Amino acid sequence: MSSPTFHLIQSLSASAVLYPIIGENVIPFGLAVIFIDIDHGIEYVADTNNFNPRGLLVYHEFLTKNLHKNYLGLNIFHTFECYLLMLILAHWFPTCYYILLGFLFHHLADQIGLVKMGKPFVRAFSILEYAIRKKHHEISLKKILSQGTANVEGVPDINKWFVKWGIKCSQNR
Fold this sequence. Notes:
The protein has one domain. The protein starts with a helix and ends in a 9-residue tail after the last helix. The chain is globular, with a radius of gyration of 17 Å. By secondary structure, the protein is mainly alpha-helical. α2 crosses α6 (95-116). The protein is 61% helix and 0% strand.
């Protein structure tokens, strides 16, 4: 779960290295490295019912600070099923191979970051896995807050965002 800036640099650097090898196919590869994270926006809107993109970064920071709260995320473009779909589509649309490679390259960087944080299984690798594991995990901002001990320290304007997200919380500091 790296920052958008990190993934932009990752995309540009890898594309520059790969251009002599794969030519113009670096475009779908590089874009895939960045745009795979659209699923974070989907998760944000589903959890907060808010479409304000500025809140997405606050939401992401809050979740990152509270991964230890038995959190489990589902980012659908970061799943086995999505990768399998890209592989199947690549049979008819070869550009999908480069999109798949971009997705996997991005996911590898995310996974390395999660391992370094000591939370390698905080994101489901599969939709099926998520369906099975979600019974025993916190899967939303509100569920994390319901535990009463969420870490909001250093999350910018979190109280303002709680209001915008319709969350009444005794933890508002």
